[in-house]
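hiii so um. not sure if this is the right channel but i have a protein structure encoded as tokens and i wanna go backwards to a sequence. like what aa goes where. can anyone help
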């Protein structure tokens, strides 16, 4: 679910216009049709029905009305909590069957919706509104559900799972279904109690994830839709080009920087990979990077966008709910790990460029930083205002104010000026993007319900603790594997909900700090998008790069190595999160971590000043790992090893040592 939506066409600005056609060869140009084809293959949100004429107008204004209703839920309507959440999910389910077909490819038939989808839309949406209009009776009866209440609850849960399969994908549905089957068949409670907990309480489908989605995530999705109208995505790419485009291997560095910037407010690794990669991947290939490497750079960078403050793919807001920490506290602690992640990728692409002797883009074809910032820097104002507001007021109010700021800054450029038509376009796109994350949150709520009401969470914790023998490192490794498996193909927001309810309690039970535990599981849930075998972001990157999918995924995993190392470090020592440490310890941890990431990246790429031998690569990787882990002794050992290999590589520069696999 990309908060930015689809990238807009390149603006014609005589001051900052960047002639991409001078860089990418015509035969490697990625057309809009190519981008759409990749999105439809790897991104569920792009597989929507095609409407035209009156049906298109009707669906458009249904989505606009849903966006307006979502805003009113936060700033106008003051209903009972269950009424607000149930009505929100009811509309979500109804619209999901209107927008999403039953399978890929079925969306291409114009103005067509089968009869059974109409029935499912009415049954699914109607079940939630039945709850709304019969709330008093259901509250009075509690678990003593009448037969009609039981049937309605079952229909609501089953149809919601089907809606999630269409909008999100099968992995999260399988996980949820497995938990529900356990609840019904093995938890030892009557069916009525289970359905009551799943459907009629704030512990199930209308639980904490939907509370977060309906109160502020939806507002940030709408904000992203309006922000995209200002042309900020293109500005980020041009800004990255002005900063790093002319350096050695510049296009790859542009991909890293632009994906990090766009990813700050993005909720989709795949969407970010395809939209940004349609520009950066052909540039990297033309520059001389191998197709697998080009696709991997974009996939790894776009995936890392989900862990980049201030938005973190909307997961930061849910982390506030689950940990109890203030948003500003969480965002500040997420800065260093995210910086280390992107530093690792940036260093890797730089060393690869040096090893291959790649040059940058001619400065004549690049926008000038000063002029670019002078003419388009105002586009950053909504983001700056958003961060400031979130630290001083509620997140919902911050999102609305920032949306207003986005509308104001759009007026500065006639090509992006938001008129009435574009205003409704933004509301429509924001509502459509909300369908995916909202349905995912509803289904994630069922998983949380099973864990909290059946005691299976305690059993999972005990199993991991016993299997690890009480050793934190082993428990972290087992939790990492669990997170990667459960996170396959799941959107960022729902991904974090699953990890926070199933995996984080395991690490907290083992003695890890709560924030570190939640950050740990969040990181490893996210990297599932580039970790084989279900590496959707990497596969999307390979489709654009025309490379081998599995090789691209493996390369992306090595580029994102910091995401596999840093969580272990802040899990065992929270100094990297600036928690329970002095200023001096924080500075030491920061400096040593960056040098350590350099050591690991250099070892994996096999090059510094010259090609490294196998033993040299192993030594500098060990040195990098000891530096990343906070501690004076480990830092001294790491510095010695990294400096030693750097000196040997410098000395061997003229000897032209052959590269060893």
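sure thing!! here u go:
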């Amino acid at each position: 679910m990309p908060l930015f939506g689809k990238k807009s066409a390149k603006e014609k600005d005589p001051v900052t216009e960047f002639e991409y056609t001078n860089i990418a060869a015509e035969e490697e140009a990625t057309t809009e049709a190519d981008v759409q084809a990749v999105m439809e293959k790897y991104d569920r949100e792009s597989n929507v029905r095609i409407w035209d004429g009156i049906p298109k107008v009707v669906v458009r204004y249904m989505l606009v009305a849903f966006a307006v209703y979502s805003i009113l839920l936060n700033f106008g309507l003051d209903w009972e909590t269950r009424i607000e959440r149930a009505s929100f999910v009811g509309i979500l389910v109804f619209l999901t069957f209107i927008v999403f077909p039953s399978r890929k490819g079925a969306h291409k038939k114009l103005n067509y919706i089968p009869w059974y989808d109409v029935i499912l839309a009415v049954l699914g949406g109607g079940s939630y509104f039945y709850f709304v209009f019969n709330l008093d009776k259901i509250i009075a009866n509690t678990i003593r559900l009448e037969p009609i209440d039981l049937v309605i609850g079952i229909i609501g849960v089953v149809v919601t799972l089907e809606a999630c399969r269409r909008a999100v994908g099968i992995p999260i549905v399988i996980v949820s279904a497995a938990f529900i089957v356990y609840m019904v068949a093995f938890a030892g409670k009557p069916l009525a109690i289970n359905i009551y907990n799943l459907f009629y309480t704030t512990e199930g489908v209308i639980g904490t994830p939907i509370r977060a989605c309906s109160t502020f995530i939806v507002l940030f999705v709408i904000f992203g839709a309006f922000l995209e109208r200002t042309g900020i995505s293109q500005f980020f790419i041009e800004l990255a080009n002005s900063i790093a485009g002319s350096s050695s291997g510049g296009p790859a560095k542009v991909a890293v920087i632009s994906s990090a910037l766009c990813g700050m407010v993005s909720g989709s690794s795949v969407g970010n990979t395809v939209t940004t990669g349609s520009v950066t991947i052909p540039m990297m290939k033309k520059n001389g990077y191998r197709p697998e490497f080009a696709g991997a750079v974009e996939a790894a960078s776009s995936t890392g966008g989900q862990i980049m403050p201030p938005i973190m793919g909307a997961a930061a807001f849910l982390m506030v709910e689950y940990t109890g920490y203030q948003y500003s506290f969480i965002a500040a602690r997420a800065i260093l790990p995210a910086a280390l992640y992107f530093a690792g990728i940036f260093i890797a692409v730089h060393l690869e460029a040096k090893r291959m002797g790649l040059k940058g883009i001619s400065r004549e074809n690049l926008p000038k930083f000063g002029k670019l910032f002078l003419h388009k820097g105002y586009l950053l104002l909504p983001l700056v205002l958003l961060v400031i507001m979130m630290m001083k007021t509620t997140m919902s109010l911050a999102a609305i104010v920032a949306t207003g700021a986005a509308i104001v800054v759009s007026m500065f450029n006639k090509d992006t000026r938001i008129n009435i038509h574009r205003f409704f376009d933004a509301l429509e796109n924001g509502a459509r993007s909300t369908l995916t994350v909202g349905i995912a949150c509803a289904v994630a709520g069922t998983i949380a319900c099973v864990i909290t009401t059946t005691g299976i969470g305690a059993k999972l914790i005990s199993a991991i603790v016993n299997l690890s023998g009480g050793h934190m490192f082993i428990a972290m490794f087992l939790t990492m594997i669990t997170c990667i498996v459960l996170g396959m193909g799941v959107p960022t927001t729902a991904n974090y909900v699953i990890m926070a309810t199933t995996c984080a309690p395991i690490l907290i039970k083992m003695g890890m700090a709560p924030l570190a535990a939640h950050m740990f599981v969040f990181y490893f849930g996210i990297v599932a998008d580039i970790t084989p075998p279900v590496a959707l972001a990497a596969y999307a990157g390979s489709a654009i790069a025309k490379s081998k999918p599995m090789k691209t995924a493996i390369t992306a995993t090595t580029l994102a190595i910091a995401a596999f190392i840093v969580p272990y470090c802040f899990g065992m020592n929270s100094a990297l999160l600036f928690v329970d440490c002095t200023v001096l310890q924080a500075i030491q941890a920061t400096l040593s971590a960056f040098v350590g990431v350099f050591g690991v990246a250099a070892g994996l790429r096999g090059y510094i000043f010259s090609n490294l031998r196998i033993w040299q690569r192993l030594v500098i990787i060990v040195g990098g790992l000891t530096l990343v882990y906070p501690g004076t002794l480990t830092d001294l050992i790491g510095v010695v090893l990294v400096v030693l290999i750097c000196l040997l590589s410098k000395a061997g520069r003229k000897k032209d040592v052959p590269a060893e696999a």
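oh and The chain has a mean pLDDT of 84.
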